[in-house]
Prior knowledge:
Blueprint: H1 3-27, E1 37-45, E2 49-53, E3 60-63, E4 85-94, E5 99-103, H2 105-122, E6 126-133, E7 137-142, E8 145-150, H3 160-163, E9 167-176, E10 181-185, H4 186-195, E11 202-211, E12 214-218, E13 223-227, E14 248-257, E15 262-266, H5 276-279, H6 281-286, H7 288-312, E16 319-321, E17 326-329, E18 339-340, H8 355-358
Parallel strand pairs: 3-5, 13-15
Antiparallel strand pairs: 1-2, 1-4, 2-3, 4-5, 6-7, 6-9, 7-8, 9-10, 11-12, 11-14, 12-13, 14-15, 16-17, 17-18
Amino acid sequence: MNDAVLLRWKEFLLLLKIFILLLMLDAYDFNSEIGTRVKGTVFMTDNNGALVDITAKSSAYLPVQEASIHRIKRLEEAGIVPGMREEFVIIGENEADDSLILSLRSIHYELAWERCRQLQAEDVIVKGKVVGGNKGGLVAVVEGLRGFVPFSQISSKSTPEELLDKEFPLKFVDVDEEQSRLILSNRKAMADSQAQLGIGSVVTGTVQSLKPYGAFIDIGGINGLLHVSQISHDRVSDIATVLQPGDTLKVMILSHDRERGRVSLSTKKLEPTPGDMIRNPKLVFEKAEEMAQTFRQRIAQAEAMARADMLRFQPESGLTLSSDGILSPLNSDMPAEGLDLSDVSPADVSDGISEKESD
């Protein structure tokens, strides 16, 4: 076979490959209908959006406003850079150049609604950011979705203006994607949070504000008062020398008045040695659980002493106190199983904390 024949044969094979490729392209039925999900790779970005390769016969464009469920000004805020491969949804077509318009925002919305339904089913507390309000309540963003919090479902006495741009705890009341209805409740979230506050328990909080008489601490959406007398065993003349707004610290629950919505806190009870909160607060927080356990043991001892005192001053009752806190009969006329005093109110072991201080 001479060189001329070999060259023609190579040209024929090349044309055959091109022909087969064209047939394959014609056979490729790309679905460009609105709502179709497609895989694509970002290959160029600018201030207005990104060009995406979706292996179609026409180009595809992702506008910046369709890049995220959140409001962004630049694609980088949503992590969109050249080379990123993602699933997009077709939302339209540009008539000027027949290019397809893509969206990530639509997919994010679907995922957000699914997440909210899951959180509602799990009955969990979430944080929502207040972004607006009207005559009926507040608008808060949760998982990227705008939800409505009726005033009847807000436990805070703060005004809408005071709550604007702040986060507060919420629970889901109604999640309806078809009706685009997302109803939330701050009151339910607060009730659940307060139910978990046990006397002597240690919680982490953030200093919200300082007053001459103490500091208000945010403990998971609930404001508690750390009275100046409960900061340290050593006298604190100026709270600002110990605490500042924004500080994170561990505090112990001293008392919880659910009816009045008041929570009294203490770091004084967590001090390994008097004055540690002033000299070495880090040590106080490291030893917080250990010191709280000691405090709870003191409560238990005080309860036992209270039961013993009750028997000592009422010998005519004909009862004796066992080691496990059960009143048992001294004579056969009483029930053999005894009387369980586990529900007796605990004694006051607050070391002299006055009502004025706890307020």
